[in-house]
Design brief:
By secondary structure, chain A is of the alpha+beta class. Helices cover 53% and strands 20% of the residues of chain A. Chain B is 29% helix and 26% strand. In chain B, the strands form four sheets. A six-stranded mixed β-sheet of chain B has the order 6-7-8-3-9-10, with helices on both faces. The chains are: A alpha+beta, B alpha/beta. Chains A and B meet through helix 1 and helix 9 of A and helix 1 and helix 2 of B.
Chain lengths: 369, 294
């Protein structure tokens, strides 16, 4: 039966390939939607990953950087620096803001850096200065390319005009970007005198960030301290949660499409093979074996579709990123594996479509010429 | 335990439909065929021949009556039991050959083997033997659509024999073959009954088969009757020249006001392609009628 099933399936390679490509198209939809969200989430936490640091300290009740507002009194920075195991405490002023660049509004994380402080600044600058002074700003190079700006141009943060003095790399994403300004300018905009947003803590060598975070929470009043690893996970989760419904809907659409394509293929295969199935039944093949044959064919189509989708997705992702810089794509390694399980579910559901047809094939029709 | 009668059907009735649209395709037919006998069921179209064959083969359940194959009452078997019986004790030969198009000659022959104890491995020697016996050595790897009609039917016969069944059921086995190939297939079926000890039951319109049959049964209006020998009405097929009983023949054509009778579809098609070429060979009532034999 296995031999017959596979030979029948591969007897028309063009037909099989067309069906598998249909399934691949549907699965690629799922892969790319997830890749876009994973890519965007990755960029959202890129600042945290690149800035490193061991512990982030923020206002109690806050546990994110993304889409969060935190205020901590600036005198606590010195107190934090005195905690045993802290090598350095860097204050950061931070806000989620809409900045006007080239007449268009762009959502951005704005990081305010102290005079001469580079610890929380851009990790790679492709042009211009790394540290903005008063009235200056460093914007993502991709954003500058998209808007056609260059060093010396002016952007607006709220009502404050700032001059672009540097272009940073790896700080742009479709959802938001990271812009670096002088802490005094940002403090003006936020009216946050005497306050900072976060404290980036570097631990002394050999100190466990988790223990240090607990110690800071214990010693400093009304703050939350989170190890970097947890802080990144928390931000990534929040970013994914914002897109999870869209991902689920698109995944369902993709899955539904794949089921319909696979189902239609096995249904048409079954219809085309009605006479052969009748002959097989007449020769003594049982219904469950015939159904197994249909299921196996559906599985082959779905898995072949998955293989094509995965290959095309991995091959096409760098190309898309090169052609459309706005889009960040990250295909998580577990996605093809998860879709493998999905493909088997698709095959199982799709094979139910012609199941009734299989059961109704009358072996006696083998006699009708 | 083997029964002396390999096929034993008693008071078989098959009714299709209900109420005033009910049709009795087979009506109270009883039939016994011993081991090694080649029996024909003949009769006009729509007489219930294929329905009877389907019931004997466990493909169709009778409305009434019982059928035993090698002593096993098939009317008492469930679908799985019937499938097992068909796989192990019955070989089928169809008019349209019905080979599995994606499989080679060898794989087609071996296809039913996986349904029997021992599977394909146990049947491989048997398949080799049948391939040689039926002259298919050079076509072993060929796909069905590259075979001639005669070759396809020989493959179908080998497939029917692979599990060494007790019963061979053939539905118009010569229907899609020309006279030469048809004759060849008939001789193979004759040898199967004689050499393999199979009970061979053939449904046919083809009067040539009578020559090799041990017994001829006549089915008409759903009832099995003795063959009336005096009802032969022999004429000559204008294409192949074969003798055809126009009373039982099913293929006819009119040309220039004459009615012609053909032994097979192939001959009919050849005639229709070039009627002028064959029309002079004779038509019914125009010197083409053979002398009636009784």
């Amino acid at each position: 039966m296995l031999h017959w099933t596979l030979r029948t399936l591969f007897a028309r390679p063009a037909y099989l390939l067309a069906s598998a490509c249909g399934v691949a198209f549907a699965l690629m939809l799922v892969i790319f939607i997830e890749a876009v969200f994973a890519g965007e989430s990755g960029r959202i936490v890129n600042y945290l990953q690149k800035t490193k640091g061991d512990v982030w300290v923020m206002q109690r009740g806050v546990s994110n950087l993304h889409m969060a507002t935190s205020f901590v009194s600036d005198w606590k920075v010195a107190r934090i620096a005195e905690v045993e195991g802290v090598r350095k405490a860097t204050p950061i002023l931070y806000m989620n803001a809409s900045i006007e660049i080239g007449g268009r509004q762009w959502f951005s994380f704005v990081v305010g850096m102290g005079e001469g402080e580079g610890r929380a600044g851009p990790w790679r600058v492709v042009k211009g200065k790394r540290r903005p002074g008063k009235g200056e700003v460093v914007i993502p190079a991709t954003l500058a390319r998209i808007t056609g700006l260059d060093i010396g141009a002016t952007i607006t943060l709220n009502t404050k005009k700032l001059k672009v003095v540097g272009l940073s790399a790896g700080t742009f994403s479709m959802a938001n970007s990271v812009t670096f300004a002088h802490a005094d300018d940002l403090s003006d905009v936020m009216s946050a005198f005497g306050m900072i947003s976060y404290v980036l803590v570097d631990a002394e060598t050999g100190v466990d960030p988790r223990i240090l975070a607990a110690r800071i929470r214990d010693r400093i009043d009304k703050v939350n301290a989170v190890p970097l690893e947890d802080f990144i996970a928390s931000d990534r989760e929040m970013a994914m949660q914002m897109g999870v419904e869209i991902i689920n809907i698109m995944s369902l659409i993709g899955m539904g499409l794949a089921i319909v394509i696979t189902g239609f293929t096995v249904y048409s295969q079954t219809s085309r093979r009605r006479r052969e199935l009748a002959v097989a039944k007449a020769l003594g093949v049982r219904n469950r074996a015939v159904y197994g044959s249909v299921l196996l064919q559906a599985m082959c189509i779905a898995l072949l579709g998955l293989a094509i989708a995965t290959a095309l997705a991995y091959a096409g992702a760098p190309l898309i990123e090169a052609l459309v810089p706005l889009v960040a794509l990250t295909i998580e390694p577990e996605v093809p594996l998860r879709l493998g399980v999905l493909a088997l579910v698709i095959a199982a559901v799709a094979s139910l479509i012609p199941a009734r047809q299989v059961l109704r094939v009358d072996p006696a029709t083998a006699f009708h010429g | 335990m083997s029964s002396p009668q390999v096929i034993e059907a008693k008071h078989l009735t098959k009714t299709f439909g209900r109420g005033h649209v009910a049709v009795r395709a087979v009506d109270d037919v009883s039939l016994s065929i011993p081991r090694g006998e080649l029996a024909l069921i003949m009769g006009p179209s729509g007489s219930g021949k294929t329905t009877l064959l389907s019931m004997v083969g466990g493909l169709l359940r009778p409305t009434e009556g019982r059928i035993a194959i090698d002593g096993v009452d098939t009317t008492q078997l469930d679908e799985a039991g019937l499938a097992r019986l068909r796989a192990r004790k019955i070989g089928f030969i169809f008019q349209a050959f019905n080979l599995l198009e994606a499989l080679s000659v060898e794989d087609n022959i071996l296809f039913p083997a996986h349904l029997a104890p021992g599977g394909r491995a146990a049947a491989r020697d048997r398949a080799d033997e049948l391939i040689v016996k039926l002259g298919l050595e050079h076509r072993r790897r060929a796909l069905p659509d590259t075979l001639s009609g005669g070759e396809q039917q020989r493959v179908a016969i080998a497939r029917a024999l692979i599990n060494q069944p007790l019963v061979i059921l053939a539905d118009e086995p010569t229907g899609n073959l020309d006279s030469e190939k048809g004759q060849e297939v008939l001789m193979i079926l004759h040898d199967i009954a004689r050499d393999e000890g199979c009970s061979v039951l053939i449904v046919t319109h083809d009067p040539r088969v009578e020559d090799v049959a041990d017994r001829v049964l006549w089915l008409e209006d759903g009832s099995l009757r003795d063959r009336k020998a005096d009802r032969h009405d022999w004429v000559w097929d204008p294409v192949c020249g074969m003798r055809v009983d126009q009373w039982t023949a099913t293929r006819f054509a009119e040309h220039d006001g004459q009615r012609h009778v053909f032994c097979s579809q192939r001959c009919l098609e050849r005639f229709e392609a070039e009627p002028e070429r064959f029309a002079d060979s004779g038509g019914v009532g125009n010197g083409g009628t053979a002398s009636a034999e009784t």
